[in-house]
Amino acid sequence: MGLVRAVAWWAVMGWVQRAFPGVPSLTTPALADWLSEGNAPLPILLDVRREYEFAVSHLPGAHRTPNREAALVLALDPHQPIVAYCSVGYRSARLVAQLRQAGYTQVYNLEGSIFRWANEGRSLVSQGQPVSVVHPFNPTWGLLLRPGLAVQPPQEIS
After folding, report:
1. CA nearest 82: which of 102, 57, 56?
2. 74 in a structural domain
3. Is residue 117 in a domain?
4. CA 44, CA 42: separation in Å to the nearest integer?
5. Domain total for the chain?
6. What is the DSSP code (8-state) at residue 61?
């Protein structure tokens, strides 16, 4: 399954890059380093997933921001570093493109998003408590997660 997952990740990353060629990305190790070193200014984390996905788990300190309008409501400084993520990076790349078009200068898409973050064993929370699972979006996309990381069965959580 490891080889299949690796090939699937290669295809997904290519798909996101082709769909959003001008969107800058940030790797999960680079974000982890940035957050752990505490170098100011720290980025604002925007989770672009649906409410029920966010409820299962998210990156510590993330704001659920499903669209451009929700992001603009946060009234962030256009020069504040922002990192957006979703399941694999497609929805967040779309938001990053929209925010860049709206004048935000330091906005990045988290490469591989929460799936890659979770696959690397990085910190996740739900209601302020550590968790070790992720909403898989659907059974097919959930195959990109290491065994044991996907909530089973995938379901909407209010």
Report:
1. 102
2. yes
3. yes
4. 7
5. 1
6. T
**Structural domain contains residue 147:** no
Asked if residue 125 lies in contact with residue 131, where contact means CB atoms within 8 angstroms, the answer is yes
Whether residue 107 is contained in a domain is answered as: yes
C-alpha closest to that of 23 among 77, 76, 81, 98: 98
The boundaries of the domain holding residue 128 are: 2-142
End-to-end CA distance of the chain: 32
Instruction: Dump pLDDT digits (tens) for 43-98.
Output: 999 999 999 999 999 999 999 998 888 877 788 889 999 999 999 999 999 999 99
Q: Provide the edge-to-edge strand list for the sheet that holds 25-26.
A: 25-26, 107-110, 82-85, 44-47, 63-64
Are 49 and 135 in contact by the 8 Å Cβ rule? The answer is yes
At 19, which CATH number?
A: 3.40.250.10
73 or 18, which is more confident?
A: 18
pTM of the model: 0.92
- Residue 82's contacts (CB-CB under 8 Å, 6 or more residues apart) are 43, 44, 45, 46, 71, 76, 99, 104, 106, 107, 108
